[in-house]
Amino acid sequence: MKILTVDDDQVTLDILVAALKGADYNNVVTASSADRALERLVFDREPFDCILLDIRMPKMNGIELCSVIRSMPSYSSTPIIMISALTDQHDIDKAMAAGATDYVTKPFKGLELGARLRAASFLANTLQQKAKDNLEFHALQLKLSRLNEPNLETAVLIEPNPGVVTNLELENGLLKLQDAVDGLEIMAFAIANIQEIYETLTILDFQKFLSSVAGKILSTVDTSVSNIAYFGNGTFAVVAQRSMSARTIIEAGILSALKSEIHLSSGTKVQPVFAFAKAKHPDCWSAQRAYAGLLDAIKDAQLKCVNQLAQSKLSEYRKEICHETSTSPSKLWFLNSVVARNRDKKVLPKRVVVLHKERLVRRSC
User: For domain 167-360, which CATH number applies: 3.40.190.10, 3.30.70.270, 3.10.310.30, 3.30.360.10?
Assistant: First the structure.
């Protein structure tokens, strides 16, 4: 145990060191003033395990020093034992209020001093272990709460409303269809900027945002014969009944409803960018065709989102390159050729985007 003893009287310090060695505490550091004590506390690489302070010292007394030590994070629970005369009871009370752990009175007795140190050390170790256990408990609580929080990929259950189902319920509903079902519209809507929205909003606001999107979609269809589910990654799927004459009315109504900003109760405004896809219409639906159509619509909508983001990045690079190289639009043949070659692709490789910029700058120099 490393002990710091602080007293302005050198004789008292010598007696303290001798008494501590008699109790088998040999790693003792002395300081003759509060300033010297603070220097050791701040600059010693190895922290002290226990501190003994004389109450009556010039300039900064032991009570004031005790208060300062307790304000230091690394010594907030280290045992501090005050040294006092028998007549210092009032000062002892003040020292205990300032954060002292215990006290000893002069003249010192080796056995009593050793017992006080052991008791103070045991108490400090108990408090430290309790604090450590509390930290570990709160860390575990935080970890568990984060596991329960929906991430971007989670197909969370959005706010229950007529027409809102889980993704599994929507899939099972299609798989239970009778053969030769007609008048079914299967669509998917994916949010291209969902990553940005997810990182901007709190978890609670993100869930409210998803519910608001579902509400806008449902406001355009007959909820008694339509269902919507969230599939994660900003993707919604809608299965709606329609008449043959209303094949495009449902799609147009939903897309029109999704153009406006979404206002959350927290005051946040969100402008999602949507990509739309729908299953191809067979003459009639079977369960397997309907389920496969749902998966295809979801995949197509998500791929359109990727393509939208790639085209947006290319537009940014066009502006950046024109600005940096002062090139005329006619000299951007390489960039345009990249766009043309990738127009029919679903994903534009990041490497191509980077390389086209480097080659264009080199050709323009």
Answer: 3.30.70.270
